[in-house]
Inverse folding.
């Protein structure tokens, strides 16, 4: 099997935010002290809940989904605070940051190595008009051959049309591609509609996705090289 192109999701595939630390600091200011690892797990479970039960909501504007998201997050953590105050504090603190999204340590080196070995890469992401800023701030835009953003093309994952659009623009066949993302219902289901092989990122093994019977799972982007070597017989790294 020939691998010519790897498509990536953006959020929590190539980049992550420091939302858990911001959230923890706010709770401390409210005299509630919770371990950061417990908070990270709560965010993970809340993400997976919305991916499974409210498909598409997380790709809408923050104003639309955050009230519901925080309600579920607090339920998972089993704590009670004023959600309106919490949301106000999150927005206030995020506005102080010049940069909210950060590249995973191995993402740049992986994209660079792919380019050096003539394997093209691109993103297909459900994101609003801030996506280009995120890519630029993390020096990812120059490493990607194609950038397909839902808010720019009028389609969103898991719609077949956004994958067809990306394939046509890249002039590549589905069986020459691999899609890597963290949302089974958007990324894996969507890419399967065009018969593209896929790889799911889930940091906690099967936790949060227990309902799925899906074999190709890694915990983070740093494990992609081993997957490529094992499944495509390519030792690039």
């Amino acid at each position: 099997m020939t691998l010519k192109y790897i498509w990536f999701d953006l959020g929590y595939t190539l980049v992550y935010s420091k939302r858990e630390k911001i959230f923890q600091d706010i709770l401390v200011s409210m005299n509630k002290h919770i371990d950061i690892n417990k908070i990270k797990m709560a965010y993970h479970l809340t993400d997976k809940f919305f991916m499974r039960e409210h498909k598409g909501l997380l790709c809408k504007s923050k104003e639309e989904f955050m009230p519901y998201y925080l309600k579920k997050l607090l339920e998972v953590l089993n704590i009670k605070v004023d959600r309106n105050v919490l949301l106000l504090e999150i927005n206030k603190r995020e506005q102080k940051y010049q940069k909210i999204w950060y590249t995973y340590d191995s993402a740049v080196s992986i994209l660079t190595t792919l380019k050096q070995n003539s394997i093209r890469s691109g993103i297909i992401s459900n994101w609003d008009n801030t996506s280009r800023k995120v890519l630029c701030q993390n020096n990812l835009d120059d490493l990607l051959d194609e950038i397909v953003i839902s808010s720019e093309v009028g389609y969103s994952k898991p719609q077949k049309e956004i994958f067809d659009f990306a394939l046509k623009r890249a002039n590549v066949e589905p069986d020459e591609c691999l899609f890597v993302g963290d949302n089974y219902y958007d990324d894996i289901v969507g890419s399967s509609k065009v018969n593209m092989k896929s790889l799911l990122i889930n940091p906690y093994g099967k936790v949060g996705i227990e309902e799925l019977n899906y074999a190709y799972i890694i915990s983070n982007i740093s494990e992609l090289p081993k997957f490529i070597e094992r499944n495509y017989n390519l030792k690039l790294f």
